[in-house]
Amino acid sequence: MYHVQVPYLGMEFDVNRTAFTIGNFSIEWYGILIALGVLLAFLYAMKSCKKFRIDQDRLIDTVLVGLIGGIIGARLYYVLFYPGDMYINDPMKIFAIRDGGLGIYGGVIGGLLCGGLMAKFRKLKVFAVLDLASLGFLIGQCIGRWGNYVNQEAFGSETSLPWGMMSENTQLVSQNPVHPCFLYESLWCLVGFILLHIFSRKFRRYDGQVFLGYIIWYGIGRFFIEGLRTDSLITPFLDLRVSQLVAAASVLAGVVLLVVFRKRTSLSGCGSAKVMELNGIRDEISQEEILQGPSTIFEDMDVSEALKEEAGEKTEEGNTSEIDEDAEKQQMTSSLSEEISSPEIEETDVDQQQDSENAFEDTVKNGDE
Q: What is the pLDDT of residues 302-353, one digit of tens each?
């Protein structure tokens, strides 16, 4: 239990780390908030699948693998840069995640790496998945940072700002109010999500552009917020904060790539109306069309129209055949009529009849004799 104060605003809170217990097993608010952030990010991704032209079933596989990779990456990031020999002396403590110790940048790197490989394996458009995943990251980070508040960790140095907070943990560093860094990062991620969500729907010009925006936006915020914290991980060889170093590199790489790809218009889902039109993308599309692949997504004519046209061609062929048969029958009938009414046939019949009559008369005469 922590007693949290915001003295300049006259606010006080009692915060219990434990949400509830089952026997001897306790469920911590930190874990619940992390799980809630992941759940909201997942629901957002599922809701946005059609907009990004991503198959939901394949994305679920990608999310599961990315989640596992994110947890492993976050733990390894913390262990590798931990300032001490605790994990060297007792390696089994590496697996004691319940005791705390996760690095958000390690989680992002591990999640992107494992999730990206799974997306490639499941034949998804990797950069489109990265765009959607980056929006999910912002949701998860916005909610998950409140777990730091419950644990009274990830706070900053002294401040005289109205929202400076105090607790049993902060007083181990300073007797005065300190920066609530968890709050800064949570709000920064919330604003970033809103801006990039709007950008993805209205202004995105190519797959991967939202992801570049994410690493720039989050990197800028993390660089300055990390500079306020008192519990940062330090690089082993240089007196630099690991997260600030990674954040600066991310921002630089993101800006360079935005410049390099500034004329790119390879889009497979929602974004700029002009670029969508250029790529032949409709604003709404069914799940069945997503499963059939890109050919049905980008064509102006759907399958049903193609079938109708094919059926129409067959009908025209059938009608033509029937017309040809009728013409042939008429021609045969006409020929037969001409033969019957021919004068030559009539003259021949008359001659034969006359010969028959003459022969009959000769027979009668001979009989009389």
A: 444 444 454 454 444 455 455 455 555 555 555 544 444 444 444 444 455 4
- Residues making up the chain, counted from first to last: 369
Q: Which residue has the tokens 């991704």?
A: 45
Residue 59, sorted as left (phi over 0), alpha (psi -120 to 50) or beta, turns out to be alpha
- The runs of H, that is alpha helices, within 145-232 are 146-151, 181-202, 209-226
Alpha-carbon span 43 to 41, nearest angstrom: 6
Distance CA 30, CA 148 (A): 7
Per-residue DSSP letters for 82-144?
A: -SSSHHHH-GGGGG-GGG----HHHHHHHHHHHHHHHHHHTT--HHHHHHHHHHHHHHHHHHH
Helix (H, G, I), strand (E, B) or coil at 252: helix
CA atoms of 66 and 109, how far apart (whole Å) = 10
| Residue 51 host element (H or E) | helix 29-52
